[in-house]
Amino acid sequence: MHILGISALYHDSAACLIEDGRIIAAAQEERFSRKKHDPRWPGGAINYCLQEGGIQSRDLTHVVFHDKPRLKFERLMKTYMAYAPRGWSSFAEALPLWWGGKLWVEDMVQQSLDFRGSVLYAEHHQSHAMSAFYPSPFQDAAFLTLDGVGEWSTASYGVGRGNDVEILADLHFPHSLGLLYSAFTYYTGFKVNSGEYKVMGLAPYGTPLYRDLILEHVLDLRDDGSFSFDMQYFDFAVGSTMTSERFHDVFGGPPRTPESDLTQRDMDLAASVQSVVEEIVLKMARHVRGVTEMDYLCLAGGVALNCVANGVLLREEIFKDIWIQPAAGDAGGALGAALGVWHQYHGQPRKVSGRGDSMGGTYLGPEFSGQEVREFLAAGGYPYRAVNDEELPGEVADLLVSEAVVGWFQGRMEYGPRALGARSILGDARSPKMQSVMNLKIKYRESFRPFAPSVLEEHVAEWFDLDRPSPYMLLVAPVSPKRRVPVEGVDRERFGVEKLHVARSLVPAITHIDYSARVQSVSEDTNPRYYQLIRAFEERTGCPMVVNTSFNVRGEPLVCSPLDAYRCFMRTEMDYLVLGNYILSKNEQPDFAEDGDWRSEFELD
Fold it and tell me: Is residue 405 part of a domain?
């Protein structure tokens, strides 16, 4: 039985193929279209999934959509009527999008796939819940889903047992933890549904001075973690912005102009909303534990990508363990909906191996063979050096030891927003200058943003205050005190992002100013080649980790193909590119000229 899950038409469109309950392929549309957070119908992702599964659309048993568009449209209508005549312009702008396609998913399926079979729908937070529980390593667990908004729900919790997922309660629009964070994302000058990571990275530079103002004015927080907004402070229900003039009056002025200099006020605002989010997540988790009496918790929804809050939740030990869906945002809804058809619609049993989750390291995207890479390099006339499997880890480790920045392109692409050693840019975690070099010369992004370590799984506890694996880079943990460098006197003389220039640990390139790090543990089982590279680096340096950041530049999605990787390599000041077994040196490459079309072979015309 082949089931195709689709998430589309809002942001982060994606597709996922399930065969007899096993995840065959999953990918976001942005990787093929090269448009970040692409919301359009995922034609490229669908084509890839069918190709990876070796099937055609006629072989599909079901196509399932991750939410119910008519319920979403109902929310749009009722929200407009509740505020009318305010909001007419945004309502009128949205109507053509709905009548032009969003309401007619079955038509889109039939047109794009020539599929005449069964088209099913799951509710948005049900898809999130199923994406959280079904692939998890737990036989039974509670789940908590948190995002901006689905149809009406903005958060939900419940219980997964065997092959059954039951939602026990939910929170409704407009009261939303995701929208609260997005409001402060907008207010601090970053792009909504894209810049939330930046707010999280900015928070440690500030003090939560505005926390009490948020709790006194903006929302009413209850002991169980539920809350309600005072909508006088928001504009998202009726307008084209997130915050209102009353919001601006309370927090000291208009929103920051995008790309303008960051001030201490912006940093304090980021710290304040992060503090409130952490408090709400902890209250919700305690309530869920009390109601469900479950020992384990699964998380999904866009807010579950807040790895700082996840780390706080883990350290509070409310649950024995937590598991977070690596594609926790809307893209993961495609996977959850497809698994839901197999387990709930068809009643098929769920098997838990006891050896981990069923995501396969979330390496579910396209892979390119050695022959395909050679053909690409030959067609472009790009000089390279071929290295065999045994020598490759040592050769690349030597480059990293020399403080070179290396583009690392190996195996199947990651599903979800994180680069996990398949489409990564790597550097030496011990280098005091690596964080600045990568931000300014490679990623072309804000200098304050931290980088993550990829650390051998068996060495995690030696370097971080973390006693378990973190394979998906979704937990922030403190750097172990024995690895830190005292900086108190030097720190007092510096302001804001200047604090980054002080080495705080033996691995300064991955240590944020609060001594934290967003940890990825690397297992030989799920990514042997990446593991062998880090092992070779450890043999040379005694350090069992490297800097890992996503293989892209600011404003672009993760690279998918060798062509994407080569273009990113040549557009930046990266030193080397490793495509499979082929090493390319920047200073040996011919002059680089852009050509026109940059779309994937999978994308539909």
Answer: yes
Residue range 1-25: mean pLDDT, rounded: 96
| Tens digit of each residue's pLDDT (9 = 90 or more) over 456-493 | 999 999 999 999 999 999 999 999 999 999 876 666 66
pLDDT at residue 306, as a whole number: 98
pLDDT 10s digits, 574-600: 999 999 999 999 999 999 876 654 445
The range of the structural domain enclosing residue 418 comes to 370-588
Beta strands 219-221 and 227-229 are: antiparallel
Buried b (16+ CB within 10 A) or exposed e, 266-295: bbbbbbbbbbbbbbbbbbbbbbbbeebebe
Element (H, E) at 4: strand 2-7
Spatial CA neighbour of 147 closest among 277, 339, 293, 15: 277
pTM summary value: 0.94
Cα–Cα distances in Å, from 578 out to 149, 361, 419? 40, 21, 15
Predicted local distance difference test score (pLDDT) of residue 487: 79
The domain tally of the chain equals: 1
Residue by residue, DSSP assigns 266-288 as: HHHHHHHHHHHHHHHHHHHHHHH
Q: Which residue has the tokens 């030496």?
A: 428
CATH code of the domain containing 497: 3.90.870.20
Q: Is 317 inside any structural domain?
A: no
> At residue 602, what is the residue type?
F
Residue 448 resides in a domain: yes
Residue 495 and residue 472: Cα distance in Å, rounded?
32
* Degrees to nearest 5, angle at CA 553 with 552 and 554: 125
- CA distances 378 to 156, 368, 381, 382, 426, Å, are 52, 15, 5, 7, 25
